Amino acid sequence: MAIFPPVRAGTPAPRTAALPLPSLRHFGPNWYATVMGTAVVATAGATLPVDVPGLRTACVVVWAVSAVLLAAVLTARAGHWILHRDQARAHLMDPAVAPFHGCLSMALLAVGAGTVVAGQDLIGHRAAVAADVLLFTAGTVTGLAAAVAIPYLMVVRHRPAPGTASPVWLLPLVAPMVSAAVGPLLVPELAPGQGREALLLACYAMFGLSLLATLVVLPLVFARLVHQGPPPLALTPTLFLVLGPLGQSTTAVNQLADVAPGAIAAPYASAFGVLAVLYGVPVMGFALLWLALSAALVVRAVRRGMRFTMTWWGFTFPVGTCVTGAAGLARHTGLHTFTWLAVALYALLVAAWAVAGVRTLGGLLSGALLAAPRPLRPVTVRTT
Fold first, then answer.
1. How far is Cα 384 from Cα 378, in angstroms, rounded to an integer?
2. How far apart are CA 31 and CA 378, in angstroms?
3. Using one digit for the tens of pLDDT, what is the confidence trace for 145-158?
4. Which of 19, 181, 263, 281 is least surrounded by Cβ atoms within 10 Å, i.e. has the fewest?
5. What's the maximum distance between 2 C-alpha atoms anywhere in the chain?
6. How confident is the model at residue 374 (pLDDT cuts 50, 70, 90)?
């Protein structure tokens, strides 16, 4: 029998302390990077050209985490648009934030690919293919839309000043390249004939779309570094984003070469196999050059006091694309050099993912990552 203390007349009823709920007002599209970085750990690990005991099981677990993360971030972003529509529109009009909307597409595509590569061990092949069809379709449509809409906003509304090019500009442009790299997983699932060939050539078209757009932006980024110096400390990790189109394009040509023989006539199928090596090897060489340059600038930034921000997730997905690119070259060349390169890059990827994940969890628990961004000092823009 419960005994309650008497309540005196006029005494206010005791209040139950309410736990403050985190606000979604500043939950931006950059959070999709956590999904991308987690999913690529599973995909890259499952396709690694070495047999490591327990690695396959670990990749399935990480894929499951990425699927849960995708659902959580999609829900939070929907809440952001519903509850804070003014801020969501402000993000689109902000040239520093708008390019991150391309991450939605890549998050969908990365989890979809991971479902076929690793998740089928848990849910079965048929369910994995069905899930990937849904995620690939949604990711490709949103990626193509972002590849047009974000540059349009940059031209019409953002109008960035000369010398302000950022690797972040590549995010909406590399999304179709991700579709080109993961699309081959679905080619064998189609019946032989027009469907297979159409999907194969559509992936090649998206490969060309993204590659040519990258070749337009990348010189601007390098020119900004040479003429303006290193980026601010907090933005230094974004230099790793350049590895994304490099590693992903290498992955794409190798993945497409794997499925070409069953989808297109023999002369073209063999040519695609040659292209995988003739394109992939030089681009991987440039990716390693950029990796070394970016790593040196990150070390410089750390020595000058660089602290954790969400930009640290830039260390994950781009490096993961280089892992899958090196693994593809190992398959097509038979060189052990590419096998060990893939292993070394995967070790770097896992370390970066672990650090970023732990620091992000800590920032969420403290509320620091959901707080309003610090106001920037006004910048004087010369008009003459």
1. 18
2. 26
3. 999 999 999 999 99
4. 19
5. 93
6. low
pLDDT digits (tens, 9 = 90+) for 249-263: 999 999 999 999 999
Asked if 82 contacts 45 with a C-beta cutoff of 8 angstroms, the reply is no
Q: pLDDT tens for residues 39-50?
A: 999 999 999 999
Q: Which two tokens stand for residue 336?
A: 């052990």
Q: Of 207, 299, 275, whose CA–CA distance to 246 is shortest?
A: 207
Tokens read off for 190: 């189609």
Would you state the structure tokens that stand for residue 113, as one six-digit string?
């690919």
Instruction: List Cβ neighbours of 56 (8 Å cut-off, separation of 6 or more).
Output: 45, 46, 118, 121
Give the whole-angstrom CA distance, residue 95 versus residue 160: 7
Cβ-contact 104, 135 below 8 angstroms: no
Q: How remote is the C-alpha of 225 from its chain's centroid?
A: 23
Structure tokens at 353: 């993912």
Q: Cα(153)–Cα(130) distance, rounded to whole angstroms?
A: 34
Give how far Cα 147 sits from Cα of 25, 200, 206, 232, 376, Å: 25, 20, 11, 26, 28
% of residues, the chain, pLDDT over 90: 84
